[in-house]
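Subject line: Sequence and fold of a protein, written as structure tokens
Area: Proteins and the way their chains fold up in space.
Start of record: The labelled sequence and token lines come straight after this line.
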Amino acid sequence: MSTTHANAATVQHEWYVIDAADQTLGRLSTRIANALRGKHKVDFTPHVDCGDYVVVINADKVALTGNKLDQKEYFRYSGHAGGLKRRTARQLLTEDPERILHQAVKGMLPKNRLSRQVIQKLKIYAGSEHPHQAQQPKPFPAHI
């Protein structure tokens, strides 16, 4: 038996669509992060982008457990004095629901150049419509 390593010429990228309605934020984002990296594939290679594209719909209906809606805070800093903005998860879900899921998935990826390339394959939409019908995305399988 010989070990196969993926490279840019041999990788096949699939498109998946997932409905985030009533799914727990952390569990959903780990599944998305694994699909983006390609860890579900047989020929996973850590230094090659062998993951798939993931389209997330209904990001505004994602569920947070416990009291996280009111206690979890998200920070933004402009770099200027007094430029720290903090918002609770409830406020952020009403203002920018895509950001919560994007930050959760980004935090689960390794911190390197490849992850900055991989996170661009994540497409998040608050509503149930998305503009990626031409790619014919498949439903997100349960085993990923």
